[in-house]
Structures are given as C-alpha cells and as structure tokens.
Q: What sequence folds into this?
C-alpha cells in the first residue's frame, strides 16, 4: 500500500518533469502534430512510457512488489509497441501498421492457459482494437489523458481486488504518469501523447483487464471489459457508423471522432474532456462493481444503452465530411499532415 502511494507520487512528478523536457526536444526535432489548429509537440508519450516502466521496474528489481513473468511480458510488449507508435509519430505510418503491431504484441501477452485458446484469440483481437482505438482519442486536448487516467485506475482496482499486486502497481504508475502528463496536455495543450503514449496506455490497460478477468465466465468478462473501455468503444462505433453511412474509407482520417463532435455540439475543449472523463468513470464504476460482485452483470446494459444513445445523438451532429473519399469541408481551420486547400481539404494522414 505504502509503496503504491510512493510509486504513484514518483510517477506523477517524474512524468510532469519529463513531459516539459521532451516538449522542447520535440520542437527542436520537428516532431509535432499538424492536424490541429496549431502544431503540438508529440513526445508526451515517451515520457509516460519511460516513467511507467521505470517505476514499475524499480519495484520488481528491488523485490518490494515483484511483477511476475506475465506482467513483465506485458510491460516489455507494451514498450515494443510504444516504439512502433513513436515511429508512427515521426514517419506517419499507416494505422493498419499499428493495428498489426498491437495484435502481435497482444498475442505474446494473453494468458492462454487460463483463458483457453478460442477466448484467448478473441482477447488478442480486442486488445489490439482497444490499443489502436485509444490512439484516436489523442486528437483533442486532454481527452486521451483524462480517459486514460480513469481507465487505468479502474483496471488497477480490479487487479487489486484479485490480489495482483504487481499489476496494480503498474496500473497505478500508468495512471499517475498520465496525470502528470495532463498538466501539460490540458487545454491549451503544450504537448500531446502521440501514438507512442496512446497505444501504450490503451495496450497496458486492455491487457491488464484481460489478466484480471482470466478464469471468469466469458459473458460476464465481455460485460466488464466493455464497461471498462466504454468511451473508446463508443468513439470507435461512432466513427465506423458515420463513415459507413457516408461511404467513406473506415481507416481514413477526418474530424468525425468523439471530441470533434462534442466541440461542434457547443462544448469547450475542457468541457469535452471533462464530459468524456465522466462518461469513462461511469463505465469504469459499473465494470468494477460487476467484477467485484457488488452488482450483477446486467448493470453493464445500462452503460451500453447510455453509450448507444450518446453515439446516436452525436451521429446527428454533422461531421462536415463529404461523400468523396478522403475529402471534407470545414468552416474553421483544420490543419492536417498533408493537405491541399481550395475550399476542400484532402487528407492523406488523419
């Protein structure tokens, strides 16, 4: 308990310091996100990854809180995926590359001996989708960090309930590191997570959730995992539905994500992040209560119903996209990685 508090404090302070240092480095190297109204440095992710790994590794190395082979494998796979995410930030790799990398990393992490092969393969696909979808939340100030903190904390509570101390410490370090990062990412953001930090956070949280549910029933596990990642799932469904209805490529880019639509609904950037955090907390609370046996699995149906209502409501808010593949019109500046301006913007890297 005391070490967990100390680890969280160290993670918070270290991430806040490193994010400030890496911001200057990103500006010097030109590693910035140009899809926003202003370029934002993208090296917040390495700060979160380094701090989380070092704090969790210190507890394992000293023997205070051993991680165990499964959690060590998770941390190594997450770090490898973070490197791929960093490459995506620097060289603008395709999204399918990140998805494939997340699937390979998840394949080495899932505890097949406890889940069984069929459920284990489903878990691999789910982890890869969550990790990739989580990186899509980094399009707005404070959004990915806020949802990440809430999700990591909730999964950490589930791990603590299962007496998985090493996993709980890893998740508390991640949540605290994301909180320290948020000091610089709250609107107006001075640095962003980038794919490096976002896929790492999503991968660690999703893999850890699978660990905590290994050995439980498949139906209840699906309910708990869905509740713990309610916002990520809602954003993915929202984008897939909107692009399907508009006849646009599913893996393309555009301002049609959760944060974009909340802004067009009239919320401020901070308001959108807070609302997403409340939404994430509602799902996490339901997931934790079901996991610990304090609520029946049917409780999650209320979260699913609320998410569906939210998605349908946001679908009614136009995404300002045309039906021509890869094109959209906007009434305010929207800066993309590669674009041509002539009343319409053609996006090559969303």
A:
């Amino acid at each position: 308990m005391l070490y967990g508090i100390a680890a969280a404090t160290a993670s918070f302070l270290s991430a806040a310091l490193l994010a400030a240092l890496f911001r200057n480095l990103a500006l010097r190297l030109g590693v910035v996100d140009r899809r926003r109204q202003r370029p934002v440095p993208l090296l917040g992710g390495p700060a979160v990854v380094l701090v989380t790994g070092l704090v969790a590794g210190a507890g394992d190395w000293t023997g205070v809180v051993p991680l165990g082979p499964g959690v060590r494998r998770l941390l190594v796979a997450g770090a490898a995926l973070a490197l791929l995410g960093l490459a995506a930030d620097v060289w603008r790799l395709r999204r399918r590359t990140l998805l494939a990398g997340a699937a390979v990393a998840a394949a080495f992490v899932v505890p097949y001996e406890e889940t069984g092969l069929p459920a284990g393969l489903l878990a691999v696909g789910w982890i890869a989708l969550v990790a990739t979808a989580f990186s899509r939340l980094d399009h707005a100030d404070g959004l990915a960090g806020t949802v990440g903190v809430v999700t990591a904390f909730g999964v950490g509570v589930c791990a603590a309930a299962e007496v998985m101390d090493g996993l709980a410490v890893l998740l508390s370090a991640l949540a605290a590191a994301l909180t320290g990062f948020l000091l610089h990412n709250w609107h107006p953001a001075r640095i962003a997570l980038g794919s490096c930090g976002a896929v790492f956070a999503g991968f660690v949280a999703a893999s850890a959730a699978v660990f905590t549910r290994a050995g439980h029933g498949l139906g209840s596990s699906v309910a708990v995992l869905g509740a713990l990642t309610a916002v990520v799932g809602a954003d993915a469904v929202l984008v897939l539905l909107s692009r399907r209805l508009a006849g646009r490529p599913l893996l393309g880019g555009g301002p049609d994500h959760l944060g974009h639509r909340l802004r067009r609904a009239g919320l401020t950037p901070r308001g959108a992040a807070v609302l997403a955090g409340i939404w994430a907390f509602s799902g996490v609370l339901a997931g934790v209560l079901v996991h610990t046996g304090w609520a029946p699995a049917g409780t999650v149906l209320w979260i699913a119903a609320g998410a569906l209502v939210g998605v349908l409501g946001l679908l009614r808010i136009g995404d300002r996209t045309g039906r021509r593949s890869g094109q959209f019109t906007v009434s305010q500046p929207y800066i993309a990685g590669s674009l041509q301006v002539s009343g319409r913007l053609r996006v090559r890297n969303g």
Remarks:
- Residues 2-29 form the longest helix (28 residues).
- Confidence is low (pLDDT under 50) at residues 321-350.
